[in-house]
Design a protein that fits this description.
The complex is a heterodimer. By secondary structure, chain A is α/β, with parallel strands linked by helices. Chain A contains twelve helices and 14 strands. In chain A, strand 6, helix 7 and strand 7 form a beta-alpha-beta unit. Chain B has one domain: Rossmann fold (3-Layer(aba) Sandwich). Chain B has a six-stranded parallel sheet, sandwiched between helices. In chain B, strands 5-6 form a two-stranded antiparallel ribbon. The chains are: A alpha/beta, B alpha/beta.
């Protein structure tokens, strides 16, 4: 790490690709629309020119075969990055990912590990409707053998990406287009954000807000606004959803005695529910109020702008949850 | 009942077109016998309930695995299915480790975590087998993809059954391999059945290879019970791959003597016709090869007897070793969910 400068989340992902590709000759990238800003923002644009079309590839519209090919290449010792411009289409890959990728190291007693990064982009809003809007974190976090990371800052977008590329196990790396233009301090050169470590972004004493991905930004916004009202919130960015860092979460809840979990996913059988359950397990007698959940309504995403307004959760929803328990 | 057969010659005419020498031929026969005796032993133990893991046995199909794998190098990769014992042994997987895994012992190739359907030996290019129909059609592209992207020499072989072209990913895989010109050899072992459903009930026309050709692959249909024919087709296909002609497809037409899983032949429960099995037993890949070797005086009856005895003893020993081996320790349950000692959540 040398000079710290500010760059955007999207550019940080692009920079992380360049570093990984330059440092590791076994690393390559494939996905649909690799040069297409409508698909990937700026995150992979320009890579083909720099690293050649042998290593940076557009894919046929075959999510399962393309992802499977990358999983198999990883089994044979490559370090592929398979990306999906919309997470919704990753359901087409679930057999390859769950039955194969995630089980392989266990099923073959540690003889064949799978060092792959499967990158899914959350891309919602703009009246895109149910099949172009999803962020099903829990589906992947549910699977033994997978790791799941969801960067919320530009710094972690780069650091988690490089950690994922260097990890010996499959990592589902999920970035969010609503964060692509957000800028923060990003060190130059190679560094890694450790997988499985949460980060306390704001310290506080009244309530712990435990958030992930885009909702971290909303949690920070909510915390800043409530500070003016005399409510002190601690914001914990989970960063990794699997393994999830309950040590950091519980340390915070131990201090505040109150917790709000804010993750933009469906609540039932979710990461948010699992985190809340783990908070109860560890802090049963210590909690001063029930854990509050800020999650998406239990419905597919709507198209209409008016309905979207009610569907997507924001800082206001977090504030309401905090106020219910302070 | 309908007889399920192919339009093939009355009895196979084995022709040693590649002029394989005696050592090579006897090695192929030995490998086929190892598979045959192993599978028959496993069938017996399944019947006796000594083995619990579901075993999908390869009896009758030995020429296909051996013919293909004898055309490969150790550095080439093979992906296989739920019916993987034959491919594992043909590619050079260790017999002791196979029996260890079938008995779910610590000494098994997958440490008792995989069972019959999940065999591996990375030292000879066996990165694992999948029990999901068409599961390996995606991941099996992987080593070939790596080979292409990183400029390496190895190829990838994907064995699959005749029902796999009914799955969507078969088409994705063939198209992906064709457009990327990947060094993949697809081997469709057409044994006429998917579990108990005959091919004719599942597919309008007998056109699996034609479908592969539509995706741009060079295809060849061979008598899968003729080890010379299979081997020749594989050698030629691999040559084309190394000449940069892209993925190749071999349909090896064969037949499995036992039911989909376990020791039974499923004739008593009406799933197939006894005459059909008899028809195919006359086309036994091992018996016909031996007849051919004797007729052409490649070897003597005595040599064949000795070979059978040798293989039986190998199988006896491997099984004994497995039975006496330790079972996995229950405290290792969560080991290897992740590599490098990361503990499961």
């Amino acid at each position: 790490m040398s000079i710290v400068r500010k760059i955007s989340y999207g550019d940080a992902i692009n920079e992380a690709h360049r570093i990984a590709l330059a440092n590791d000759s076994k690393c390559f990238v494939i996905g649909q629309g690799v040069n297409n800003p409508w698909f990937v923002g700026r995150t992979t644009v320009g890579l083909m020119e720099e690293f050649g079309s042998e290593r940076i590839m557009d894919s046929p519209i075959s999510e399962a075969a393309m992802t499977g090919a990358c999983i198999g290449a990883a089994m044979a010792g490559a370090h592929p990055i398979a990306f999906h411009p919309r997470m919704d289409f990753m359901y087409l890959t679930l057999d390859q990912v769950v039955n194969h990728c995630a089980s392989w190291n266990y099923m073959f007693d540690g003889k064949v590990n799978v060092p792959i990064v499967i990158r899914g982009i959350v891309n919602r809003g703009g009246e895109q409707g149910a099949q172009h809007s999803q962020s099903p974190f829990g589906i992947y976090a549910n699977i033994p053998g997978l790791k799941v990371v969801t960067p919320a800052t530009a710094r972690d977008a780069k650091g988690l990406f490089l950690a994922a590329v260097n990890d010996p196990d499959p990592v589902i790396y999920i970035d969010d287009r609503w964060l692509y233009e957000v800028e923060d301090e990003v060190p130059e050169g190679h560094y890694e954000t450790p997988i499985g470590k949460a980060n306390v972004l704001m310290e506080g004493k009244d309530v712990s807000i435990i958030a992930a991905s885009f909702m971290v930004k909303e949690a920070q916004k909510a915390a800043e606004e409530m500070q003016k009202e005399g409510i002190s919130c601690e914001v914990v960015d989970l960063r990794s959803l699997k393994p999830v860092d309950m040590e950091t979460v519980n340390k915070s809840v131990k201090k505040t005695g109150k917790a709000v979990v804010a993750i933009a996913e469906w609540a039932f059988a979710s990461v948010a529910a699992s985190v809340a359950e783990a908070v109860y397990q560890e802090n049963f007698g210590r909690l001063k109020a029930p854990v509050q959940m800020v999650t998406l309504p239990d419905s597919p995403a709507p198209a209409s702008r008016i309905l979207e307004e009610s569907y997507y959760i924001k800082a206001e929803d977090i504030k309401r949850a905090v106020k219910r328990i302070v | 009942m309908t007889m399920n057969t192919f339009a093939v010659p009355e009895l196979p005419l084995l022709k040693n077109d590649l002029s394989l020498n005696k050592i090579r031929i006897m090695a192929m026969l030995e490998r086929m016998l190892i598979i045959r005796y192993t599978e028959q032993r496993i069938a017996k133990r399944v019947e006796q309930r000594e083995i619990g893991t579901p075993c999908h046995l390869y009896v009758g199909q030995e020429a296909s695995a051996v013919g293909i794998c004898f055309a490969l190098r150790d550095t080439d990769y093979v992906f296989s299915t739920h019916r993987s014992h034959g491919h594992f042994l043909a590619k050079g997987g260790k017999l002791d480790e196979l029996f260890g895994e079938i008995y779910c012992r610590k000494t098994g190739c997958s440490g008792g975590r995989g069972g019959s359907m999940h065999l591996c030996d990375p030292s000879v290019g066996l990165l694992g087998s999948s029990s999901i129909v068409a599961g390996c059609l995606g991941i099996g592209l992987g080593p070939a993809f790596k080979s292409k992207v990183l400029g390496e020499e190895h190829i990838s072989v994907i064995f699959h059954g005749d029902c796999v072209p009914e799955e969507g990913i078969w088409h994705e895989s063939l198209n992906f391999a064709a457009i990327k010109k990947l060094p993949v050899l697809y081997v469709c072992e057409n044994n006429l059945y998917a579990a108990s459903a005959p091919l004719a009930d599942r597919r309008l026309n007998d056109n699996i290879s034609e479908a592969a050709k539509v995706h741009g692959l060079h295809t060849e249909i061979v008598d899968g019970n003729d080890v010379f024919a299979v081997n020749k087709a594989a050698v030629e296909a691999i040559e084309r791959i190394h000449n940069g002609e892209g993925p190749q497809f071999i349909e090896a037409r064969t037949y499995r003597w036992l039911g989909h899983v376990g020791y039974r032949d499923d004739i008593d429960v009406g799933l197939r016709d006894a005459k059909e099995l008899e028809y195919w037993k006359e086309r036994c890949p091992i018996k016909n090869l031996e007849k051919n070797l004797l007729f052409n005086t490649v070897c003597t009856e005595k040599e064949l007897c000795e070979l059978h005895e040798k293989v039986k003893e190998m199988v006896d020993n491997a099984e004994k070793l497995a039975i006496s081996a330790a079972e996995p320790d229950s405290e290792t349950l969560l080991k290897n969910v992740y590599s490098k000692g990361v503990i499961s959540q």
